[in-house]
Amino acid sequence: MAGQQEQPEMAPPPPRRRVVCVTGVGGFVGSWLVELLLSRGYAVHATVRDPDDPKNAFLKQLENAPENLQLFKADVLDCGSLTAAFAGCEGVFHLATPVPEEKIVDPQKEMMAPTVEGTRNVLEACSAASVQKLVVASSIATVCLNPSWPQDMPKDETSWSDKKLCIENEDWYSVAKIEAEEMALEYGKKNGLHVLTICPGIVFGPMLQTVEINTSSKVLLYMIKGGDGPHVMNNKFWPMVDVRDVADALLLAYHKAGPSARCLCTLEQMDLKHLLDLMKNMYPNYNYADKMVDVDYKVEVTSEKLKNLGWNPRKREETLADSIEFFEKAGLLDGRPCRLPYFAVQE
């Protein structure tokens, strides 16, 4: 119509920014998950005990961190601090849990409280903050110690470790992880929270920082260069997995797994003697620690459920090469002694 001014076209609304929270971001897996989330355009709330602690500085230097990463002061034993960190988040990844290097003296304080009570607080904080989805990083330890499982069948997501047997063995790490995972899945069913769990094997791979060396990397470092004391290693069959593949699995499950899902996340088993031989073939010039005693601990598991969702893990040769290259560049393979974590020692 003459004289009528044309209306400008309306610009499409900006894409909704997805906000998630990650606990335990200073840890091995947590830091890689944050790096992955930031690379995918997520805004990340990250819980730490002290945002100003220098050991957390590397997180602020990750790509996209200045605009998309916010550190929150929180403690898993303080539900209120978690609720504040979860506010505005559609999903939470709960990774904060202790991994003991020494023999546990006080199981309640060292393992049960931070793992079980901490997970309970995370669940309640998710409900209080109206979080839609929670992914809990559990452990292959909740799967493997199951003497009633048929010996000729790989263990899958329906296998649960025998908690009574774990208590008898004073395996408090496994006890805590079993209780926390069972509680999380049950809470989700009862309270309408979309909860799923990922159970990784022993996690190897390069690190994003060197301020605090994770426990599993110390096993590799000890094998490569030896260390303190006349320790002899247990030649266990360990299902192992790359830390970057665990991060991929957590995010993949977040998008594709249904509520109350449980997914094993590991490569096929490999004993430490074969792992040692593989490293010697790849890097023959190190002074490897090769004192080992065979133990009756063989684990065969399957990660087909996760692979059917699209998980495509790296080969162990790539994991070892990237780990050792990182150790070399970080100066971790110099002459300083390395202590073997307790769980790998033959008593």
Defining traits:
347 residues, alpha/beta, Rossmann fold, 7-stranded parallel β-sheet, 3-stranded mixed β-sheet, 12 strands, 39% helix, globular, NAD-dependent epimerase/dehydratase domain-containing protein, oxidoreductase
The count of DSSP E runs of length 2 or more, i.e. the number of strands, is 12
Tell me, rounded to a whole number, the average pLDDT.
90
CATH class term of the domain at 19-207 and 240-268 and 299-313: Alpha Beta
The fold-level CATH name of the domain at 19-207 and 240-268 and 299-313 is Rossmann fold
Number of helices: 13
Cα Rg: 22 Å
Proportion in helices: 25-40%
- By CATH, the architecture of the domain at 19-207 and 240-268 and 299-313 is named 3-Layer(aba) Sandwich
Keywords: Oxidoreductase
Protein name: NAD-dependent epimerase/dehydratase domain-containing protein
InterPro entries: Epimerase_deHydtase, NAD(P)-bd_dom_sf, NAD(P)_dehydrat-like
Pfam families: Epimerase
Characterization of this structure:
- With 347 residues, the protein is of the alpha/beta class.
- The protein has a domain at 19-207 and 240-268 and 299-313: 3-Layer(aba) Sandwich (Rossmann fold).
- Helix content is 39%, strand content 16%.
- It is built from 13 helices and twelve strands.
- The strands form three sheets. The protein has a seven-stranded parallel beta sheet, with helices on both faces.
- The longest helix has 22 residues, at 107-128.
- It is globular and about 50 Å long.
- The N and C termini lie far apart (92 Å).
- The model has no long low-confidence stretch (mean pLDDT 90).
